[in-house]
Amino acid sequence: MEKNFNASRLFVASCLALLVTSLTFAIRAKIEAVFQNDYGLSAQDVGWAFGPAFWGFTVAMYIGGLVIDAVKTRRIIWLAFFTHLIGIVLLLTAKDKTMLFISNVFIGLGNGSVEAACNPLVATIHSENKTKWLNRFHVWFPGGIVIGGILAWLLIDNLGLSWQLLTSLLFIPLALYGYMFFGQNIPETERVSSGVSYKDMLKNVGAPITILVVVTFMILAASVPALAIQFNTTTYIIMAVIVVAVIAESKFANKASLLFPFMLFCMFLTASTELGTNQWINALLTNSGINPMIILVVVTGIMAVGRYFAGPLVHRLNPAGVLLGSAILSFAGLYLLSIADGAAFTMFAAIVFAIGICYFWPTMLGFVAEYIPGSGALGLSILGGAGMVATSMVLPLMGESIDTEGPQVTLRYVSILPGILIVAFAALNIFMRSKKKPHLTPKAA
Question: Which residues constitute the domain of residue 58?
């Protein structure tokens, strides 16, 4: 396939788009206290109103992944731009949980559209080393949180300026990524250029119908309080039925590997470990003896540096090995945070946690892009979207736990997630020892 696009400009534009996404995460981490203290919302209310930022992300990613090859990447990018614009304007006017909820619907749709378009775009323009470049692209998620955390600390904590001024700064990277993408030639996804059919893409996902139904239910459970998940016998029976349905569809209907559904399950846990903890950082570490926003900046700064230099580590350990090491350190970091007493101990535990979660998101995407390339843009969108909708379900659960049992107990509960991942990724490493990396060959012109 002839290279008739500006790869450097497209990559920079993608990074700026992701910067808008990450800044919204940093701003939410700061203003959750504002909406509790100034507008009288409970932590559970805030968790519910923040939920659409995650499940809206999922809706946009799933729809984008399904239609991107038909409507083209360009249209998904401009959908991201305009939903971001609407969401930011609505957030600036929010004063109650309903308006906060609606603004996060649009912001979530914008964030998900960025990932739906830019993950396969980066994998296409840098198809020779996908995991390395996806890690570099995702530098701008923690990188944006660092920038947002510093701005929040400077403008609100030190200068006493309004949260609306902080939020309005989102217009700067929004305008820049719109300008960088404007008029550019954007290539087809690698799946299309390699001649992999739409039917084969669905088959590579393993159990697409079951997965889409399950995630739709998760979105409803996260957004409708009456459907909120309760861990009881009925819930466990439903989970068992889902597992059977996934296996049946993968092995009998599609005759496909269970590798993608397995990675999807792991994504539920990796994303909740990373994003759930970071979104509640202010409430979880408010009595730690150090400003939680400083901890957030340190954590995300370590993540940004680690992702930029991920190439040699991924080459040495392979993606499955990186994921296992990440799970071990994430578990250790969360447990240490749950027992930390004093600023120094808290900072040490936060650094361990940061190193642990550093590679989770991009390496999960990189693993699927490299070892299940036939899943195409849909596979990347399903994986990222599932992580976000899982987080949207975890946020109110964490908020309720913080309200009733306190931050330290909540941190111990969350540490169960990477504990499960240690076992899962150890099994993945054993399984992958005999597997070779498949390659897609561009079809002849």
Answer: 7-432
The mean pLDDT value for 412-437 works out to 90
- Which residue reads 């999922």 in tokens? 58
Contact 44, 403 (CB under 8 A): yes
Residue 15, amino acid: C
In a domain, 237, yes or no: yes
Q: What is the pLDDT of residues 296-330, one digit of tens each?
A: 778 888 888 888 887 777 767 788 899 999 999 99
Kindly state the tokens that stand for 302: 């370590």
Distance CA 407, CA 243 (A): 32
437 within some domain:
no
**Contact by Cβ (8 Å): 370, 437:** yes
Of the candidates 129, 94, 44, 127, the one whose C-alpha atom is nearest the C-alpha of residue 376 is 127
Is residue 394 one of the residues assigned to a domain? yes
Cβ(89)–Cβ(129) below 8 Å:
no
Counted domains in the chain: 1
Q: How many residues does the chain have?
A: 445
CA dist., res. 71 & res. 186, Å (int): 12
Which residues contact residue 303 at a Cβ distance below 8 angstroms, ignoring those fewer than 6 apart? 141, 142, 354, 357, 358
Q: Angle 171-181/73-93 helices, nearest 10 degrees? A: 160
Q: What is the pTM of this model?
A: 0.75
Higher pLDDT, 97 or 426: 426
81 vs 434: CA distance, rounded Å: 43
Within a domain: residue 369? yes
Q: What is the CATH number of the domain that holds 171?
A: 1.20.1250.20
Q: Assign 1 a pLDDT band (cuts: 50, 70, 90).
A: very low
